[in-house]
Amino acid sequence: MGRVPNVTRADAVAALRNPLAFIAARWTPQPRTVQRAALAALVMSVVIVVTGGAVRLTGSGLGCPTWPKCTTDSLTATSAMGFHGAIEFGNRMLTYVLCAAVGWAIIAARSEKPYRRSLTRMGWAQFWVVMGNAVLGGIVVLVGLNPYTVAAHFLLSSALIAVATVMWQRTREGDRAPKPLVGKSVQQLVWFLVAASVLLIAVGTVVTGSGPHAGDSSEVERMPLDWETISKLHAVLAWIVVTLTFALWFVLKAVDAPKGPLDRTRDLFLVLLSQGVIGYVQYFTNLPEVLVGLHMLGSCLVWIAVLRVLLSLRERPGTAETELPDPAAEATVATRA
């Protein structure tokens, strides 16, 4: 076991003033460590969506009837609250795991050398989205699972996934200006795909808000819309996204695009097909809870796949600092030669 260095009074003061800078001055993570930290934050942002769906699908949305406490007298769920209280409180506890994952991503990004301000800012952006969504989740409980607040809760989670996906991608890139790999017309087609995907996700929240899974066994307000009509609109939008993806793949092949955009478009197409199968099966089998949960997971994976297609249209080389040769290393090589 190595010798623990002495910590002076000045070190302690510095750690209190700026703990991230204190850690960064004493630790330099490997690039793979930073990538894994960003990936962990992304995975947890998906997990929290899926477990939130489990809360709704088990009718446990009001298992803890108040917020920030679980009851007016207890911070945690009690045995008298049963299964629903345990499910709802467990989901609340997972928020702390998500915060830990995001915090790890922030620390790893801040400690990377050379320092990349943009990467650290994306980590902090995730933190503040998580905090905002935690407050919004509390409001959802306090207003009795109002469907509009539930929809906003899911959309903010989708925004968190977007930031986490971009950060994960940026950990594998440099900080120079992006260089496009395809022409402007292809980029415009992909932006249409992104817009259609955002609309698809938004309409999906309306399907949820007007559908039968209200989130609790009690009488919960629903959106005053015909569920079957909204579901059919959702299906039409899904086919539009599939068509745009199919067209994009052919366009990329026609212009002899690099392998990256082609592979990401293929991945998106496969995820869309799987999601479509789940969607139609759940529709014709009266929305079994397991399939609805899988569909929520699929929604997250579709969104990530769409963003990866968008991010694959350009490359960002390393910074000038990381690409400059090391004079000392060159001198050593010359001496040995």
Overview of the structural elements:
This protein has 337 residues and is mainly α. It contains twelve helices and two strands; from the N terminus they run ααααααβααααβαα. It has a two-stranded antiparallel sheet with strand order 1-2. Helix 3 (31-57) runs antiparallel to helix 6 (147-170).
Present the secondary structure layout.
Blueprint: H1 9-17, H2 19-26, H3 31-57, H4 82-111, H5 117-142, H6 147-170, E1 179-180, H7 184-210, H8 227-254, H9 259-284, H10 289-311, E2 314-315, H11 320-323, H12 327-336
Antiparallel strand pairs: 1-2
The total of beta strands comes to 2
Structural class: mainly alpha
Q: Termini separation (Å)?
A: 39 Å
Residue windows where pLDDT falls under 50 for at least 5 positions: 320-337
Shape: flat
Main sheet: strands, sense, barrel: 2 strands, antiparallel
Average residue pLDDT: 87
Give the percentage of residues in beta strands. under 5%
Instruction: Please tally the helical runs, counting DSSP H or I stretches of 4 or more residues.
Output: 12
Helix-strand topology string:
HHHHHHEHHHHEHH
The helix content, as a percent range, equals over 70%
Mind telling me the C-alpha Rg? 24 Å
Largest sheet, spatial ordering of strands: 1-2
Quick structural summary:
Helix content is 72%, strand content 1%.
Task: Based on the model shown, name its key terms.
337 residues; mainly alpha; 12 helices; 2 strands
